[in-house]
Amino acid sequence: MDARPRAELRRIADRAAAELHDATAAEVLGWAGRTFGDRLAVASSMADTVLVDLAARHAPGVHVLFLDTGYHFPETIGTRDAVAATYPITLVTVVPEQTVAEQDRWYGPRLYTRDPDKCCALRKVAPLDGALRHYDAWVTGMRRDESPTRADTPVVGWDDRRGLIKINPIAAWTANDMAEYAVRHGVLLNPLLSDGYLSVGCRPCTTRVAAGADARSGRWAGRAKTECGLHST
Ligand code: SF4
């Protein structure tokens, strides 16, 4: 499919935001697959393989972008490889410009302890921005119940910084909805999810979540940071 002009994408986003507000995840992903074809990408952390399963069913062949920061848990890399081998999707691994060793030489070791915003900018935001230039719309696994910072997540929105449509088909799903779907459909899950990690990111910045705390409280725990910047629009 050819790239659409930004103004046309904006019109599509506005119309879809109104029409798909209460649509099911299957309906939203089906619409996205038909509308954008190979200009659609799903971004997955491999903690949200329920989203990958849904996308594989309702937009088969879709590109699934996995951001390999170089700091992932081995379980996450194993999940990525199993997903690529199991689901009818096109797995695209996106890497930062510098390896961890190169970044350490340039900025000093453990940048994530001294300046996690810079580390995320280098290892997450810049590479994803580059990858998304090839698409008109991207799909995320953001859910409103993950944390207060995500409480207003729309099903379809406009990513103004990137000039793309941003689609969050499971925005209204709860943690229970995710678990029920995973059991019903035999979804291949990241084993860390059943080991107390309710939201999984880079190993140095992810801890288990205390009982009753929100899912993202284990990310950058004890620091003011709550988001990596991927979702700053
Ligand atoms: Fe760096 Fe931590 Fe951000 Fe990963 S989550 S890119 S290790 S600061």
Write the layout of secondary structure elements.
Elements: H1 6-19, H2 25-36, E1 40-43, H3 49-58, E2 63-67, H4 74-86, E3 90-94, H5 100-107, H6 111-114, H7 116-132, E4 137-139, E5 156-159, E6 164-167, H8 175-185
Parallel strand pairs: 1-2, 1-4, 2-3, 4-6
Antiparallel strand pairs: 5-6
The structure holds iron/sulfur cluster (SF4).
Iron/sulfur cluster binds next to α7.
Domain Phosphoadenosine phosphosulphate reductase: 42-207
Active site: 228 (nucleophile)
Organism: Kutzneria chonburiensis
Features of this protein?
8 helices, 6 strands, binds iron/sulfur cluster, PAPS/APS_Rdtase, PAPS_reduct_dom, Rossmann fold
Can you describe what's shown?
With 233 residues, the chain is α/β, with parallel strands linked by helices. Helix content is 38%, strand content 11%. The protein is built from 8 helices and 6 strands; from the N terminus they run H-H-E-H-E-H-E-H-H-H-E-E-E-H. Helix 2 crosses helix 3. It is globular and about 45 Å long. The chain binds iron/sulfur cluster (SF4). The site of iron/sulfur cluster has 13 residues, from helix 7. InterPro entries: PAPS/APS_Rdtase, PAPS_reduct_dom, Rossmann-like_a/b/a_fold. It is an enzyme of class 1 (oxidoreductase). Its cofactor is [4Fe-4S] cluster.
